[in-house]
Amino acid sequence: MLVKLQPITTSKPSTAYIKIRTGSKGGGLSNTGYWGIPVQNKQEYQLSVILQSESINSANQAPQVTVQLESQDRRTVYAAAQVKDVSSSWNHSKIMLTSNGTDPTAQLTLYVHDQHVELSIRMLSLFPAENVKGNVLQPFRTDILDYLKDLKPRYVRMPGGCYVEGVSLQDAYWWKPSVGSIQERPGHYNGPWQYWSTDGLGVFEYFQLAEALDAEPVWVINNGISHTYSVPAENIWPLVQDALDLIEFVTGPADSEWGGLRAKMGRPNPWPLNYFAIGNEDCGKPWYVENYIAFFSAIRSRYPHMRLISNCDMEVHAPTDLWDWHMYTNSQNMFDRRHDFDHTPPGKQVFASEYAVFDDSPGHPVQFPGNVRAAVAEAGFMTGVERNSQQVAMAAFAPLLSHWNDRACPHNMIIFDNRRVFGTASYYVQKLFSEFQGVSYIDTTVTTPEHDPRDHGIAASATCQDEDCTQLAFKVVNFAPEAQNVDVELLGLHSSPAKMTVTVLNSTNPMSENSFDEPYLVCDYMCSNSVCLVVTRCKLVSCIASSV
């Protein structure tokens, strides 16, 4: 049963824990995790468990407790160990388990051998041994982290968008309960996406992730507005102070109140934080402008270097450093909207933090997890982002990750289950644009050989890869259903390239997509050539030209 008594630490007024009452044959509990716990042969795992028992027998002996990794039918045991130091006080034990087999859907079982005893469990956590080396837990799967690193992201927006807002403020994300030791984090229900978050991935771990990716962190704060309720401006100050406390936790010295907590968690040195988003998709909701101004004024006065992000262009209503822009649409509309930023006024800067194709056509969702046609449409849109890079400061596909068994959105970039991972076609589009982002844009025009300037489903952009433009990368996107020959003119290029390398992302079937069985069915591949032609349907071509 679940009880809420006897706090494990003095910092928490009450602590929920599970109590086991055994019968005449002992008892225990099993945990299958989410869709099973994957174990690998000869892999080490660290079990961390906090428990107590007031059931001491006449010989002053504590109950005998064992833990084991086993198959879900309980017929095969992969690893087992005894939990020592069980007493009437809360004890935190760390136990190493080495699996003697491989099972993608195992379970963890804790068993009490004694009859008619009570055992209370406060926390139980299992990680691969490689994640617990050193003093600070590294909670990220290495295979997924490698996929993220290969994208070479310039920034990470965290902890999310709707996740931060909540359906109500009660199920919104609040940062303070997500810091400190794992056993002190109560977790919360994630209302927008309908799952329980343990908050084991909290502020500290998000900034670990940004550091591991060598990416600029962009933090999104709740500004007192959820999907269903807005805090009036006269009551907003406690949340403003909460935002200031977060910034101190991340950037403050180790002798400050919140910087001291970060240091206690194993990070004495501060992290950088230069971008801070005030709310998510809240423009037009009650009190957004007034609350935004309160957050903006307090943060700007204390941290003048911080670039603050609004949910829309605030125009005359409030100062705007950058404004957030989101778009989820169908493939054709995504491709057509590559000109959205062509007329953004000078001095205005856009943060296009969420965009993706969700529909193949209006009202017809993309089949999970995506397809080539959607990815190529996004590539066409991205040529417009590159062309307007003076106005579009940052841009990103969303959503980033999805578990195969929990499909909140129809189209995602990286798909994983408990033991495998693959990138969708959109992943490889993002990877190409990231790799060949360059340092400056070169004006580009595309026409047919008959010099017909009309839109034939072709988009293009070009960027210098270094300050002297000794290497040039240009992308040509064919969104049309047929092969095309086109002329690409690069304006301002002083000499013709001496050599060229062509990278192609292509499929003859616009509905093709990668999978666990065929993770590279659609991906980028290189070839060397002296010309760059759009010659097959649904193709993205990226060319690197070098001068001598």
Describe this structure in words.
The protein has 548 residues and is an alpha+beta fold. Helix content is 17%, strand content 32%. It is built from nine helices and 31 strands. The protein has helices at 142-150, 162-165, 203-212, 237-251, 257-264, 288-302, 331-336, 372-387, 425-435; strands spanning 2-4, 16-21, 27-31, 37-39, 44-52, 65-70, 77-83, 91-98, 103-112, 118-128, 155-158, 188-190, 195-197, 216-221, 275-278, 307-310, 322-330, 350-361, 364-365, 392-397, 401-403, 414-416, 421-423, 440-442, 444-447, 458-464, 471-478, 487-490, 499-506, 524-528, 539-546. Strands 11, 14, 15, 16, 17, 18, 19 and 20 form an eight-stranded mixed β-sheet that branches. A six-stranded antiparallel β-sheet has the order 24-26-27-31-29-30. Helix 4 crosses helix 5 (257-264), helix 4 (237-251) packs parallel to helix 6 (288-302) and helix 8 packs parallel to helix 9. The longest helix has 16 residues, at 372-387. The protein starts with a strand and ends with a strand. Mean pLDDT is 89; it is low at 1-6 and 528-538.
Uncertain regions spanning at least 5 consecutive residues: 1-6, 528-538
End-to-end distance: 74 Å
Q: Helical proportion?
A: 10-25%
Coarse shape = globular
User: With helices defined by DSSP (H or I, 4 residues minimum), what is the helix count?
Assistant: 9
Structural class based on helices, strands and sheet pairing: alpha+beta
Total count of strands: 31
Largest sheet: 8 strands, mixed
Mean pLDDT: 89
Strand content: 25-35%
Rg, rounded, reads 27 Å
Describe the structure using short key phrases.
6-stranded antiparallel beta sheet, 548 residues, 8-stranded mixed beta sheet, alpha+beta, 9 helices, disordered N terminus
